[in-house]
């Protein structure tokens, strides 16, 4: 199987429980909740995405012929040293492309594998750290994992139902939009009212990181 990657880069994880950790980000092209075209946003299931996942023309992106080639590219971005290797598979929706061969290749290269997924497809059982970010009008089938990251506000979301899903951490992240002040206040209000949740912010944006 070949893999279509929009971009790949070395950075610090900016969100969630793993925030601040050195990581190679692999952003896969394609998503099942939005085409990525602005003319389709209004009719998409997910309308607030702030990520360009269309094509393979981003820095470090491209078509990789097989899992070995992609794992070698990830290793190249990590650089020297085998300690604490960490890769984050994101998108778009990474589970459209992740398979046994890729998980085996990345583990074989010494990487701990994290995923950031919308949860509409089952996550590969070999993934080491599972972060699910549910979208209000989607059908989420992956209801277990390490962290549930709820972008807020999302009208129509049943927060009480999400609290029953089997995640070690329940996180609320303010929606990045023109209404940032109101969205931050809404996220804080949710945590204050429902203490099972914790606030997470996009530190990489504040720090000027990708």
UniProtKB/TrEMBL annotation:
Residues engaged in binding S-adenosyl-L-methionine: 48-50, 92, 133-135, 173-176
UniProt binding sites for substrate: 12-14, 27, 90
Record flagged with keyword Cell wall biogenesis/degradation: no
Domain Radical SAM core as annotated: residue spans: 18-210
Subunit structure: Homodimer.
GO molecular function: lyase activity
Catalytic activity reported: 6-carboxy-5,6,7,8-tetrahydropterin + H(+) = 7-carboxy-7-carbaguanine + NH4(+)
CC cofactor note: Binds 1 S-adenosyl-L-methionine per subunit.
Key word Metal-binding present: yes
Function (record text): Catalyzes the complex heterocyclic radical-mediated conversion of 6-carboxy-5,6,7,8-tetrahydropterin (CPH4) to 7-carboxy-7-deazaguanine (CDG), a step common to the biosynthetic pathways of all 7-deazapurine-containing compounds.
Protein name: 7-carboxy-7-deazaguanine synthase
Organism: Sphingomonas echinoides
Family: Belongs to the radical SAM superfamily. 7-carboxy-7-deazaguanine synthase family.
Pathway as given in its UniProt record: Purine metabolism; 7-cyano-7-deazaguanine biosynthesis
Enzyme Commission number, as recorded: 4.3.99.3
Cofactor(s) annotated in UniProt: Mg(2+); S-adenosyl-L-methionine; [4Fe-4S] cluster
Residues annotated to bind [4Fe-4S] cluster: 31, 46, 49
Positions annotated to bind Mg(2+): 51
Keywords: 4Fe-4S, Iron, Iron-sulfur, Lyase, Magnesium, Metal-binding, Queuosine biosynthesis, S-adenosyl-L-methionine
Enzyme class: lyase
């Amino acid at each position: 199987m070949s893999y279509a990657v929009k971009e790949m880069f070395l950075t610090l994880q900016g969100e969630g429980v793993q925030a601040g950790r050195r990581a190679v980000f692999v952003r896969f092209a394609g998503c099942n909740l939005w085409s990525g075209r602005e003319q389709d946003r209004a009719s998409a299931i997910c309308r607030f995405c702030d990520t360009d996942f269309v094509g393979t023309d981003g820095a470090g992106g491209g078509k990789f012929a097989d899992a070995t080639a992609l794992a070698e590219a990830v290793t190249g971005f990590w650089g020297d040293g085998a300690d604490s290797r960490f890769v984050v598979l994101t998108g778009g929706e990474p589970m459209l492309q992740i398979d046994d061969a890729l998980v085996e290749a990345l583990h074989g290269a010494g990487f701990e594998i994290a995923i950031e997924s919308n949860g509409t497809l089952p996550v590969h059982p070999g993934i080491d750290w599972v972060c699910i970010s549910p979208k209000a009008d989607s059908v989420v089938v992956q209801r277990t994992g390490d962290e549930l990251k709820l972008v807020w506000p999302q009208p129509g979301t049943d927060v009480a139902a999400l609290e029953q899903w089997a995640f070690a951490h329940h996180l609320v992240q303010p929606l990045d939009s023109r209404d940032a002040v109101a969205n931050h206040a809404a996220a804080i209000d949710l945590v204050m009212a429902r203490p099972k949740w914790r606030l997470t912010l996009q530190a990489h944006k504040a720090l000027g990181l990708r």
